[in-house]
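DM from R.C. (forwarded with permission)

"hey, sorry to bug you on a friday — could you get me a structure for this? deadline for the figure draft is monday and I only need the backbone to look sensible"
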Amino acid sequence: MSRSTLRPESLPGGRLARAAKPADAAPAATKAAKKTATPAAHKAAGEIRIIGGQWKRTRLPVAQRPNLRPTPDRVRETLFNWLGQDLAGWRCLDAFAGTGALGFEAASRGASAVQLVENDAALVAQLHALQQRLEASAVRVQRGDGIAALKQAAPGSIDLVLIDPPFESPLFEPAVEAAAKAVSADGFVYLEAPRAWTDEELAPHGLAVHRHLKAGAVHAHLLKRGGSPAP
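My reply, with the result:
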């Protein structure tokens, strides 16, 4: 997220099978090989895939980094079903980009400008490499503070703000506050959190829950300015 090869003579009925001493030498060797291979398997990077658009099924690497938690496939699929499959002309800002799964998904579906902000240097390098491999001209990768990037955006200039901070961080409240100012009047804020946020909490920021999904430990919210929650 290991294969062992047995020599023909070690197989049952092989020419040297009867001569092998002791009888359990081959199984012991196999167990040893598995033990040796296990750590390597744990070190391998995982992968997720872009779900729709021009880069559908493109694999994105998932590095082993502290607090890196890619948005699950089911949640991403639901989010972009909520938003619609065509994001042509949309301006997007992914404030805690991580693997870039959300931002590249938006770009894959036609967004005209996608800003990926990430403060981990290794992840930034990975995002740059992926941007170049896909020749994603609409995507801009920036190393830095996602909340600061939101504050620097012109008020009402972003059609889709993506905020998915580390679950154990204190960044949710300031991220929501900054996103509420950056999003356009008819735009959306996607909030991924370890708990459900209520309209009462969001009202001081001028936001309301438009859609909500719970998938395992993840609460996915699609927020809009004011308005009433969808039934």
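R.C.: lifesaver. The chain has a mean pLDDT of 81.
me: no worries. The helical segments are 25-43, 73-83, 101-108, 121-134, 146-152, 172-182, 199-202.
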